[in-house]
């Protein structure tokens, strides 16, 4: 039976890097960030709902969601964030479930890449949870570097999530990403071997 694995971590802990490695091992990845963008894509019902709640300024001149405007509104008015989530989350879930069902039907093991899996209480929607772990200080360093942020900005983003050490205790398996990318690859392969997804001399999933 193919498995459904929830892949999560903290911001900049290395989920995308791990997703790419898993794809190379034959897993299919369903990405929550991509689904969230599709949910409010140009011409969608989702975007029409956003316009009804946030006004015409929520749409830019090309007909896409004006992310910086909507982002600013929900930052200043937390109740609007809840409304946005009520619009977007069910659509995202629907997109992801459909994608998952297709891959499972084709016999693939599926990775549900969900950054806020624990924050949104989605543990029960997957067979098991794998967490990409790194320390908070490394998260902050990598985030500053990748997004060109100040220390304060990076800290604010990291501290807005459930702490990675708490998430670590809730996960079924932990993939350590405190060291180099080469070490990460090795740690992931150790897990895949342990869980029977690959054999010691071949590296095929399924
Ligand atoms: P987000 O939640 O913000 O989307 P993420 O968890 O998907 O992030 P990645 O984008 O994979 O994280 O990694 C964050 C940054 O850290 C990237 O620039 C990536 O290249 C870098 N990175 C990841 N792992 C390592 C590592 N072991 N050593 C050095 N840099 C790394």
- How many discrete domains? 2
Instruction: Tell me what portion of residues adopts beta-strand conformation.
Output: 5-15%
Q: For the residues shown, what is the average pLDDT?
A: 95
Identify low-pLDDT runs.
Answer: none
- Percent of residues in helices comes to 40-55%
**CATH topology term of the largest domain:** Rossmann fold
Q: What small molecules does the structure contain? A: adenosine-5'-triphosphate
Side-by-side strand order of the widest sheet: 2-3-1-4-5
CATH architecture verdict of the largest domain: 3-Layer(aba) Sandwich
**How many extended strands?**
5
- For CATH, the homologous superfamily of the largest domain is named as P-loop containing nucleotide triphosphate hydrolases
Reading the helices and strands in chain order gives EHEHHHHEEHHHEH
Distance between the termini: 9 Å
CATH class of the largest domain: Alpha Beta
* Gross geometry: globular
> What count of helical segments does DSSP give?
9
Outline the biggest β-sheet. 5 strands, parallel
Structure in words:
This protein is of the alpha/beta class and 206 residues long. 52% of the residues lie in helices and 12% in strands. The protein has a 5-stranded parallel β-sheet, with helices on both faces. The site of adenosine-5'-triphosphate has 15 residues, from α1, α6 and α9.
């Amino acid at each position: 039976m193919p498995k459904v694995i929830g892949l999560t971590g903290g911001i900049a802990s290395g989920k995308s890097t791990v997703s790419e490695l898993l794809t190379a091992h034959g897993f299919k990845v369903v990405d929550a960030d991509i689904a969230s963008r599709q949910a409010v894509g140009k011409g969608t019902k989702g975007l029409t709902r956003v316009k009804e709640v946030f006004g015409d300024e929520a749409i830019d001149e090309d007909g896409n969601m004006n992310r910086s405007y909507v982002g600013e509104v929900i930052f200043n008015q937390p109740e609007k964030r809840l409304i946005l989530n009520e619009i977007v989350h069910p659509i995202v879930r629907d997109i992801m479930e459909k994608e998952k069902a297709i891959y499972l039907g084709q016999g693939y093991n599926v990775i549900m890449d969900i950054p806020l899996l624990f924050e949104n209480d989605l543990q029960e929607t997957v067979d098991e949870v794998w967490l990409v772990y790194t320390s908070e200080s490394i998260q902050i360093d990598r985030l500053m570097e990748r997004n060109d942020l100040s220390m304060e900005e990076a800290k604010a983003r990291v501290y807005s999530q459930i702490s990675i050490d708490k998430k670590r205790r809730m996960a079924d398996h932990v993939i350590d990403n405190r060291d180099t990318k080469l070490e990460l690859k090795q740690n992931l392969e150790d897990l895949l071997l342990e869980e029977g997804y690959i054999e010691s001399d071949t590296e095929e999933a399924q």
